[in-house]
Amino acid sequence: MIENAWLIPVLPAVAFVVIVFLIRQFKMLSALTAIAAMAVSFIISVGIVWEIIQGGATMKKPVEYFVNWLDLPGLNIQAGILIDPLAAAMLFVVTFVALLVMIYSVGYMHGDPGFSVFFSYLSLFSASMLGLVVANNYFQMFFFWELVGLCSYLLIGYYFHKPSAVQANKKAFITNRWGDFGFMLGIFFLFLVFGTFNFGELAKAIPKYDNVAFLTLAGILVFIGPIAKSAQFPLHVWLPDAMEGPTPVSALIHAATMVAAGVYLVARGFVLFHSVETVALVVAWVGGLSALIAATIALVQDDCKRIMAFSTMSQLGYMLMALGVGSLTAGMFHLTTHAFFKALMFLAAGSVIHATHKQNIFEMGGLRKSMPITTWTTVIGALALAGIFPLAGFWSKDEILVAAYTEGAYALFGLASLVAFMTAFYMFRMVFVVFWGDEPEGQHAHESPLTMTIPLIILAFFSIFSGFIGSPLVETGFFSYVYYKYPHPPEPNYMIMISSTVLALAGIGLAWLIYGKKSISAEALKQRFQPIHTLLYNKFYIDELYLWLFDKVMLNISTAFNWNDRHIVDGIFDGIGDLTRAAGARLRFIHTGSLQNYALVIFAAVVIIMLWMAVPALGGI
Amino acid sequence: MITLEHYLILAAVLFCIGLWGALAKRSAIMVLMSIELMLNAVNINLVAFSRFLTPDALVGQVFAIFVIVVAAAEVAVGLAIVINIYRERQTSFVDEFDWLKW
Q: What ipTM did this prediction achieve?
């Protein structure tokens, strides 16, 4: 199966081309083509995972195929496939989530005028992400990285007639450009020093290289890419706005195809990020701070998709923190489980939005009765996200906490525990407000069609059970395949398990008291902590800060540059032109038009040349 | 006894007269005639050098005949131009041929 891995990204790409150029008029056929291509990719991915469980490839002995894409003296760029357990886990997650999202979209996008186009975009999006996952070198990864950015632009702006969607996709694209720029500079620096983009060759060369300053610079530059792509502070601003896209797209972006790319890059370039202590610390702290910032903002938002967006940012922060403190296993494990329950949460939110046509959670309520499947799958997803035993999130989050604790990063450990509490609170705040409480006037919700509920049920199943593959309960699990240097079987740390569960339960309990039972008034709390609430509600004013920076600082600098361009640069060239013209205006008078003048000049010149040649002192003969 | 120097002085005088005529005369006919003078001054030089320096070879004389042929052709073309200009502008004064100036 592994030798067929190249088909995984190629099939959805072919589906994209076929849909766009051949069968766009036939809506159902387009959807089926996209789903069929993705299903085959999924089956191949399952085959690869199976072969890896059999020992077909390990982290130390990956399977690599490549051809030389560009072979010039001093510049060799490969196009290749690199399959190791890390890539296989990602392939499984991406194809699985993309497949379910596509099936779900058949119901969600029903009757949309751009139905076929939507499926073609989804195919291209998945193809780019899968190409990124199997890449065997930084250059190929960068290529697909850009494609992922392009597809997110297309999909976030899918409702292009809405001005807010157009603003959001521009914001996402431009914010990502910042990251891409850093990433690009980083890999070019690496290429300058090591002369290769290949992951394997770099992994061999980097530990032998001892210029710490250079490695720090290159590592941080490359890390700017994941900061933007995985929506980490301070380049996270695009993610909440990305909610303007259709909800299945949000699920895809948040679970599998976009934000996971950043975390995957950090895992793929683990050697680089851990070659210098500083870079690893930066990764860990950017992750930790983003987790905290996002969780606090999520506490007070009232748009259900925005709450989820900040939750994603927070969970991605967890993953980067795990990678930063040195546990590749924990970070990737959380990425895997998170993909299942975050896709579930988004698809469930889509189901709710589909039924109520609203996004503000305080305009909904009591949906428990009319939408039982959505309700219970959401509860499972929320429990998994909150990290309640024995759901998926419990095992993966626990592993991150243990990793932070055993590596001695106690500040990060405390911060992560606090975030765990807040996560439980804001998820159940949403659950209680939307599904419990009283139904508002004029709400005629009904359960969504089967194409939408079946993916929810499948994802709920995975949200419950996928955690066991990496739990300390099994002999050989996720940790025996995906690791850095040597496997680290998780050791159950009961103190952390209990404390994190207690914190999560406390969060759920507090949410129940405030929003379920209403024995603590949310309004009163809001009044009491008005400044904090305003600060959090406005997302720490980071958007406003960027706007100010743009309006006041950047535009002024641009005005200065504009002046320089108009007056100094243009001045030099206009001056040269003016000078030439003025000289010409005066010199033309020597053209008298009189033949005898010309003859005199010619004769005088002949005489001068003769004299010059004849006089020895002037070099004559 | 007439030596090479006598011929050279004669040629130089002729050349200078020709040059002065070509540069200073107003009439185009006179300019063309002056150019003939300059060419013939050169011819005298050629024949004289040939006669005094290489008496056995007729190189200079042959060259002079070439110059005469080319001069005849040049005068034919020059006179044709002058006649055409005269028909167009009713003048044959060189200093009025100035419609190419600035």
A: 0.85
